[in-house]
Amino acid sequence: MARFQCLSALAALTGLLSLPLIGCIADNEDRTVNDMGGISDEMPGAGVDVDDVNREEAGEARQAFGLGDAKIFDVKQNADGRLELSARGTDNAIWNIWQVVPNGGWSGWGSLGGGLITPPTVAQNRDGRLEVFANGWDNAVWHTWQAAPSSGPWSGWASLGGGLIGPPAVGNNADGRLEVFSRGMDNAIWHTWQTAPSSGPWSGWASLGGGLNSSPAVAQNLDGRLEVFALGWDNALWHTWQTAPNSGWTGWASLGGTLISAPVIGRNADGRLEVFALGTDNALWHIWQTHPSSGPWSSWASLGGTVSTIPAVGSNADGRIEVFVLGTNNALWHIWQTVPNGGWSGWATLGGTLTSAPAAANNRDGRLEVFGRGTDNAVWHIWQTVPNGGWSGWATLGGIVH
Q: Which pTM does this prediction carry?
């Protein structure tokens, strides 16, 4: 079990509340499980500063920390409805913080250990247990999981193998099996999947082909089929999809566009997928299915704005999509559908001074909550005060995140 020493400091975010910060430093005694079934004290690279290591062999792995793949943490609901946030610390371990009750206050930070080079991606198993995925210093995908829904202890880290660049994406098949997608060093998208819902063993890695220039994003269609999106080297959006739920895959097809960020996917109230990305004009662009689970897709349309990060996409309790980005002033900006499945508002600011792309999640009561890294490297958050309604002021969750 990790021991924690917590340091208090007074720090202020320009434009945010001035609040005490809590930064936790772990004396981490967690042990990890390696991919051969043996026990190791730590994953490759644990405790090593990412900036001090020559990563030329990882090709474009550093893109994981640039605009194209700039999500730095992930937030998911536990089976009991409590939000849990996972982030990579400056020690390259994954750290978690969680609501102590649904819709309520937050715990302190706790370390899951590990030595990772990408931000975490979190998914929920069919039985409700959360599972965290990230790339290790060996460019393999590593994962850890809750022993029971909504609770610890977490497993040790285990390797799924592979030689990948950029953070993984995880989707839920129609039958509940998790499937992981990541870009290989050959710039193809590779995937591995649970052979049974909520459990291993996992399949071997298989290639979906393609020549991609961003990490993938994955979403489930209304009919249960997974669909994967990524940028090509032509800066257009490309996609591939399962031909039937839980089944094989099509070839890659282009949706056009001229984009500079990895795609982010939202889902309309009627089930139609909608994809958002930054254009070369730094505006937010989107494209959407004209029918649930099928094409043809719309043409690309601009939502305007001058955006400096990859967007975060959330859904209001009434089904309206809402998108969050950082502006060039480092404040959080948002834009939302005025009716479910419908048109869009203008841009409005939620203030703050942030240094990362935002992440958004729904509380159990449907209220959206948005998270970002402040200039003090702590996690800050803001939330709707009622479902579909107005917003709180900013507050800090402390921590020091990569």
A: 0.84
